[in-house]
UniProtKB/TrEMBL annotation:
UniProt-recorded name of the protein: Uncharacterized protein
Source species of the chain: Zea mays
Lineage: Eukaryota, Viridiplantae, Streptophyta, Embryophyta, Tracheophyta
Amino acid sequence: MGLCYGKSAVVQEPAVAEENNKVDGAAVGRGDGPPASPAKVSRTPKQLKLSLYLPSPLPPSSYKGSLANSSVASTPARGGFKRPFLPPSPAKHIRALLARSHGSVKSISEGGEPDLGLDKSFGYSRHFAAKYDLGREVGRDHFGFTYAAKCKKGELKGKDVAVKVIPKAKAALEEILYQFEEKLQAEREKVARKQEKLQAQLQAQHAALEENQSLLRETQEEVKGIHTKFEETNALLRAVLKLQKD
């Protein structure tokens, strides 16, 4: 609601009117001296100084149950179905750290995360402390811990990197799994080579079998030709013997 800036009709308070009447009566009742002319009563009414923000004259109980307050109180809160947020992923902080080290200071969004190349080399460096200066811990998982570090040597000298440190107790299992994967890959390659060799041999044998089958068919045709010639010769001999008997 806006404030009204118009001039309101001023009503003189009864207390002010009574004081003015008392002053006039006292001036008339004095007997010494000639009667003075009646004091001029200023007809300009006095304006009341009212504050812009006045409390309501109504008792609080009368407007607490009003329609506006009841509608506000009856409206259900919008935040009734609140779920706890998931903790932030440590990988995002690591990627953000790597992004800042590569010159990108923009915040990483959910949809377009920068695709940075990671050094996935696995091994145990004896001069680890001479190459990296470890900082605070930024994450941990089942096998080890991830630290923010600064590279002292190599191509990434002076840049911030993320380093994974695996304890010896868990590094043994990691090494066993790594060696097992290497052996398994070698066995797979060996089996693949054997399969290729056997397939080549089978193809050669199949070609030789087809050649032998063609030779067999030719031999069968030759045998059929010889058999027909033998039958013709046998028929001629029977005819000659019959003529000799006659």
